[in-house]
Amino acid sequence: MGRFYVTTPIYYPNADPHIGHAYTTVYADSLARFHRLLGDETFFLTGTDEHGLKLQRAAEERGLHPKEFVDQMAEKFKRYWAMLDISYDRFIRTTDPDHERLVKHVALEMYRRGFIYREKYSGWYCVSCEKFYSPGEYIVVEGKPYCPIHRKPLEWVEEDTYYFRMSEFQDYILKVLEEEKRVYPEQYAREVASKIRKEGLRDVSIARPKSRVWWGVEAPFDPDYTIYVWFDALLNYITGAGYLEDRGRFNRLWPEAHHVIGKDILWFHTAVWFSMLKAIDVEPPKKVIVHAFLIRRGLKMGKSAGNVVRIEDLLERYNGSDGARYVLMRIFNPHKDVEYTAELLDSIYNSELADNYGNLVRRVGVLARKKLGGTVESETVDEGLATAIEKAARKYVEEMDNYRIQEALAAVMDLLREANAYINREKPWEKGEPRRELYSLLEVIRASTTMLHPVIPKATVRLAEAFGFKIEEGSLRDQVTPGGGRTYRVSEAPILFRKVK
Ligand code: MSP
Predict the structure, then answer these.
(1) Is 329 part of a structural domain of the chain?
(2) Is 65 a catalytic site residue?
(3) Count of CB atoms within 10 A of residue 139's CB?
(4) Where in the sequence is the domain holding 384, given as residue range(s)?
(5) Residue of the nearest CA to atom 14 in ligand 1?
(6) CATH number at residue 418
(7) Is 21 a catalytic residue?
(8) Could you give the residue ranges of the DSSP H alpha helices within 87-220?
(9) How much distance in Å is there from the Cα of 92 to the middle of ligand 1?
(10) Residue 374 — pLDDT band, cuts 50, 70, 90?
(11) From the candidates 131, 147, 269, 291, which is the catalytic residue?
(12) What band does 35 get if pLDDT is binned at 50, 70 and 90?
C-alpha cells in the first residue's frame, strides 16, 4: 500500500468560486479518489487563502471585518465543494490557529537563520495577484503600467520592508528544476529555469507594514509588520501535513506531496516555495502538477474578465455533480488553454456519458432482467471483451498514475465502445438465454464503472448497487480483473444520464 498527499491551491475567498476553480479542485479530487481506490493512504487538502490586501479591501467594501467576511465565504466554498462531491480530508483556512502558529514559527526560524533582512522597497503592485511586477513583466497602457493578467492599473508602493534571501538559492533551484522531475508537465520547469537563467533569482519582500496591510499574520520579528500573503499561503501545505503538530505524520506524508495548480501561480510554487522549504531544510514536494486555463471568448475565465461560468449553472445543465465533473475532466488540459463552449461540453456529455456509458448500462440492465430474471451467474467471459478489459485497465492505471485523467477516461470510453459494438453484433435480445453475452457485458460494466468512479462518484455507486457489486477503497485491481466467478443481481436498469438538448 502506498501513500498519496494531494493539494489544491487555497483560493482567495473574495468572490464565489467559478468553474475555473472547480477545474483544479475536481481534478485533485479525482486523483485523491483514484488513490483511495488503489488502497493508498490518501490525504487531500484544500482551503481558502484569507489574509492580505485583497481580502482586507473586499471586506472594507462590504463594511465588514475581514474575519466576518472570510467566515461567511469559507462556508460558501465548502457548500460549493459539497455540491461537487469534493472529498477533501481537511479544509484549511489561513486564519486557522494551527496555521498562524506555523507561519510565525517558520518566519522566526528563517529570521534566526539569517534569511530575512530589512530594506527599502519600491515597485509596482497588482492587488488582484498580490504580487509586484518588474519592468518587462507588466504591460503599458497609455503610458501607465498595467497587470498583464487582470488588465488593471498597478499601484506604486514605496516602503521599508523585510526581504527573504531567495537569491541564495539560485543554484539549488536551478538544479532541482533541471535535474529532478518535480514539475509536470516538464515544459513548465524549463520555463521557470530559463526565467531564472535570464533574470537571476532576486530576493523577495515577505512583509508589509501594518499601516497599509493590517489583515495578516503578525511578523514575529517586528510587530509593526504582517507577513506577505503568499509567504503565509504557501505554508498551508506543510501545516496541513502536520509539520508543527505531528512530525511523524508529516514525515510520512511530505515525500508524497502533490500540488495541483494553474500556470498563473507556477513561479510561487517552484522558485519561491522550493526556496522557502530549503531555508528550513525540507525537501521540495514530489510533484507540482500544472494545468493551463479554462478560457472564454479568448480570455482566462475570471472575475476580472467578467466571463465566468457559475458552478450552479454547470451542475444544472449536466444533471448534477457527476455530469459536471465529467465534462470538466474530459476537457482538462495541462498544456494548452481550453476555450469553454456549451456545444463542446454538451457533445461530450451526450456522446460519452449518456450514449456510450449510459445506454450500454441501460440496455444490459433491461436484457438481464427480461431474459434472466435479473440473476446473471458466472460464465466464461468472451475472449475479445476480456482482453479489452485488461488492456483498458492497464492503460487507465498508467495514465492515472501519470496524472493524465483525460487519457484515462478515453481508455474507458474505448472499452465501452467495444462493448457497444459487441452487443450490436451479438444481438442478445434475439437469443433465448444469452448468459455468456450478458455476463461478459456485465464484466465490462463492472470494470468501467469502477474506473469511472473517481470522476463520477455518485452515479457509479448507484449503478454498482443496482447491478450487485461494490466499489470500495482498495478494490480497483480486483474490479478490473475479468472472471472470478461472481453472480450479478440486477435489481434495476437505471437511466443514469438524461441527454441535454
Ligand atoms: N490564493 C492563491 C493561491 C495560493 S496557493 C498557496 C490564488 N488563489 S485564486 O483564487 O486566484 O486561485 C487560483 C487558482 O484557481 C489557479 O491557480 C487555478 O488553479 C484556478 N483557476 C482560477 N481560474 C481559472 C481558470 N480560468 N482556468 C483554470 N484554472 C483557474 O491564486
Answers:
(1) no
(2) no
(3) 13
(4) 350-489
(5) 262
(6) 1.10.730.10
(7) yes
(8) 97-112, 170-179, 186-199
(9) 16
(10) very high
(11) 147
(12) very high
